[in-house]
């Protein structure tokens, strides 16, 4: 069992530490960095609650080793709202459209939408819906979330 | 749901991966995108002592044209392969198949070579390699060898790759530009492994089938070719096809399993309907 020194950018600041080879990025973020926004749902890549951005791309943090984040840029849901607590526009839409109930899955949905929001050329509603098929929500029935998608698509037109 | 302990080493190039895998011994594993291997580790369905990570091996990513067709480096990400102009133009079947692989978030990490090397019987990319007659490039300290995809798979997650061999690339032959492609699957949810899946390539010129390639997934212990029906299709005119009879031929060599998701009878029935309708749709499209 090898032990590794890692250093990476987390939400704009440089963090470093030691990790076992087998530790997932999700576990490292939650337990070593206290960054509990990414949630461990299924821990095998199905539910999407652990989704973070790795060098700007939405990925499953449960399907990556912490050691693989070495030298990379990682963004979690904690990076979305501003320092003074003002919500990111997508978070604000989630609130207005009742796109969350228990909130367990929400960080994942938000990070995928944040990645899509930065993508050029801009994805349409259909592409955003397809990308959200990688997330499970057991509360909302998805309708509120899809209203956010429609608003995002409308805003971009 | 936590992996058992292992050692981890990084390979910065294909040659380094070959060297490290050779050093590491028989129970080492290559870690590419991790979108199949990481769940297997978490579920402790596999237990390697060493992981050789090829993510830093940039020479293993990319698409080029070679003497065996379009060469796709093993570590090419699925999201990059499906957008690549050469893949879209010259290997459209693969681009279409990748759209069914996992989700947006897993395609950002998952690789073409990783899926083809592991050989999950219900996965799209191994079946595409089988249907198209792709060639698999394996490299070890003993040299490089090319293996036809149709001879590569021997059982679920079992291939003819030796312990010290690294799958460095997959070569997809270029089919004629008039080739029609069908990629169909039935799954409980988008992104799930298919219950039944079909990759069909028919090179049709002046309504005559010049070449056929059929690959099934989720329909046996490996991705399954259907050579009997390929032979039956080639040389025939679309107007003289018997889709129902051909569907029976196409499914005659399949060995679908019974599991909690679907029965063997269900899978076989869906497969036959899928094949029949695909032929009818293609014939209608060409006639129009």
Detailed description of the structure:
The complex is a heterodimer of chains A (157) and B (288). Chain A has helices spanning 25-32, 89-96, 106-118, 125-132, 143-156, and strands at residues 3-10, 13-20, 51-54, 57-60, 73-75. Chain A is an alpha+beta fold and 157 residues long. Chain A folds into 2 domains: 3-79, Roll (Ubiquitin-like (UB roll)), CATH 3.10.20.30; 89-156, DNA polymerase, domain 1, CATH 1.10.150. Chain B is α+β, with helices and mostly antiparallel strands. Chain B has 3 domains: 7-53, Uridine Diphospho-n-acetylenolpyruvylglucosamine Reductase, domain 2; 58-172, Uridine Diphospho-n-acetylenolpyruvylglucosamine Reductase, domain 3 (2-Layer Sandwich); 180-287, Enolase-like, domain 1 (2-Layer Sandwich). In chain B, the strands form 4 sheets. Chain B has a 5-stranded antiparallel β-sheet with strand order 4-5-10-6-7. In chain B, strands 11-12-13-14 form a 4-stranded antiparallel β-sheet, sandwiched between helices. In chain B, strands 1-3-2 form a 3-stranded parallel β-sheet, covered by helices on one side. In chain B, β4 (63-66) and β5 form a beta hairpin. In chain B, α5 packs antiparallel against α8 (124-132). The chains are: A alpha+beta (157), B alpha+beta (288). The interface between A and B is medium-sized, with 29 and 31 residues.
